[in-house]
């Protein structure tokens, strides 16, 4: 018997009328499913930009809730809760902006994936903040404002609150426009602006501010010069040699040893100050010992690693990959140990003053404040850091492992030299200055080689002015944006802080 009106996959046949009706039904179903699919994709696209801010808001609220549980029954509990939320907001911005400078070169050189860089930064930034973070912040951000000029604890608290909020807002804005700025300088500007608003210009230590202003120039110039020098060494001693592999076997262990020694001295001097105090001569001796040991260890390692490599520049990248990853991790540890403490310093000051009323002495940073800083930078880096990491790593100039190695090494050496000279420097300015130094050196070297080639072949056509501009190896738009952001960081944060301070005083009515 012939089955009718039974679906074909069950062995039946379809009549013409029913068959056409089912096909129309299937077409309608496909169209509806396609609409749902497009709606789902549109919803995801619209929701994506608010995922990061949403998670950030939850973190800030949890930090405030934790402060409420611990300090809810104490005096000025609400002030501590609000300040904790602002500290969490500041920590998120540190992760989104400042940490990118340590990871950008390694990612841009393809020595690390974006996920690997974020994982390493989260672990080592948190470890640096929690294990070796500074335990004492000098009175009001390194003596920028005379504390006795504040008059009373309430004025001091509002000034620190304004400094914390203004610094966080400025770093947030800088991250949004893609400009890596110094969070430490943002805090300094915030403290200065609130101090001026509270006690006048006479309250500011202008000698300290002058030294900080000098660091705006010294940090990037010194970092760029050191990075350019080591790129010159790599090019002249390895890349431009006929037998590149033999030259690499001789010089890469030396360069890795120098890097290890520099980071050894750097961490001994800056990263371990909470555990043990080490002076400059001792730190340099520690660095020298580490450099010699690593140099001797790397000789057979590089020899084995270079076996079978072709005699070309691409082969050399393999030899710098692991040192570059290690340097990124060590930079993150040192950054967590130093800059995080500076950024959460105003929060520590607010907590101590609200509890004790004493605002004329140094402020200890409670462990829970460092925990907020550590988790905040981790969330900030994970949620918002990739934008700045890509910008520093690949959008200023093209980086490979050799160039990124020069940037990382310059960061460690520049901090040591600046500490020896007693100059306050910014790790952000040093790292980005190193990227600029590498890029501008490549431009100069390419121009020099072009002139030499033209001298050898006078009949060779010269590049037009337009072509010469196109062949620039440093993107001038990013260069100008970053320099402008650096110049206005302190005054912008100061002005914003003064406005916020006046607003707080007007609303609360206590000053």
From TrEMBL:
Residues 1-22 are annotated as: Disordered. It is found in: Membrane. It comes from the Bacteria. It holds the Pfam family PHO4. Its main location: membrane. The keyword Mitochondrion does not apply. GO terms for biological process: phosphate ion transmembrane transport. GO terms for molecular function: phosphate transmembrane transporter activity. GO terms for cellular component: membrane. The chain crosses the membrane at residues 45-71, 77-95, 107-124, 156-179, 186-206, 212-234, 246-268, 280-298, 318-337, 365-384, 404-421, 427-444, 479-505. Belongs to the inorganic phosphate transporter (PiT) (TC 2.A.20) family. PANTHER family: PHOSPHATE TRANSPORTER. This is Phosphate transporter. It comes from Octadecabacter antarcticus 307.
């Amino acid at each position: 018997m012939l089955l009718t009106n039974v679906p074909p996959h069950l062995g039946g046949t379809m009549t013409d009328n029913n068959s056409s009706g089912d096909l129309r039904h299937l077409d309608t179903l496909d169209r509806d499913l396609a609409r749902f699919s497009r709606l789902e994709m549109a919803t995801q696209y619209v929701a994506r930009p608010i995922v990061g801010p949403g998670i950030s808001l939850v973190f800030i609220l949890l930090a405030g809730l934790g402060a409420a549980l611990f300090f809810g029954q104490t005096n000025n509990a609400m002030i501590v809760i609000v300040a904790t939320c602002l500290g969490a907001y500041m920590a998120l911005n540190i992760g989104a902006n400042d940490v990118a400078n340590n990871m950008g070169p390694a990612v841009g050189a393809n020595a690390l994936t974006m996920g690997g860089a974020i994982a390493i930064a989260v672990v080592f930034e948190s470890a640096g903040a929690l294990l070796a973070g500074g335990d004492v912040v000098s009175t009001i951000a390194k003596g920028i404002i005379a504390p006795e000029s504040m008059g009373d604890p309430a004025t001091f608290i509002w000034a620190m609150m304004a400094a914390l909020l203004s610094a966080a807002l400025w770093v947030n804005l800088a991250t949004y426009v893609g400009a890596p700025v110094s969070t430490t300088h943002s805090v300094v500007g915030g403290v200065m602006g609130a101090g001026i608003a509270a006690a006048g210009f006479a309250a500011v230590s202008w000698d300290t501010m002058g030294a900080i202003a000098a660091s705006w120039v010294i940090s990037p110039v010194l970092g760029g010069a050191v990075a350019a020098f080591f790129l010159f060494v790599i090019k002249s001693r390895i890349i431009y040699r006929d037998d590149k592999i033999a030259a690499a076997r001789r010089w890469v262990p030396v360069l890795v040893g120098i890097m290890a020694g520099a980071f050894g001295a750097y961490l001994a001097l800056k990263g371990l100050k909470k555990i043990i105090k080490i002076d400059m001569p001792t730190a340099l001796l520690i660095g020298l010992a580490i450099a010699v040991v690593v140099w001797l260890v790397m000789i057979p390692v590089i020899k084995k690693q270079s076996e079978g490599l072709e005699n070309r520049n691409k082969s050399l990248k393999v030899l710098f990959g692991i040192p570059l990853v290690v340097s990124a991790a060590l930079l993150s540890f040192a950054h967590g140990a130093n800059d995080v403490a500076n950024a959460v310093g105003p929060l520590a000051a607010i907590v101590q003053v609200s509890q004790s009323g004493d605002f004329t002495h140094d402020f200890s940073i409670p462990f829970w404040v460092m925990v907020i800083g550590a988790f905040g930078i981790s969330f900030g880096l994970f949620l918002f850091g990739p934008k700045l990491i890509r910008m520093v790593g690949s959008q200023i100039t093209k980086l490979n492992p050799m160039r990124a190695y020069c940037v990382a090494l310059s960061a460690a050496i520049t901090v040591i030299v600046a500490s020896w000279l007693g100059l306050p420097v910014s790790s952000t300015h040093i790292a980005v200055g190193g990227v600029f130094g590498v890029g501008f050196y490549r431009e100069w070297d390419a121009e020099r080689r072009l002139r030499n080639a033209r001298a050898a072949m006078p009949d060779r056509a010269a590049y037009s002015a337009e072509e010469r501009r196109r062949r620039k190896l440093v993107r001038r738009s990013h260069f100008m944006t970053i320099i402008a952001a650096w110049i206005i960081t302190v005054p912008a944060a100061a002005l914003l802080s003064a406005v916020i301070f006046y607003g707080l005083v007007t609303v609360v009515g206590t000053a």
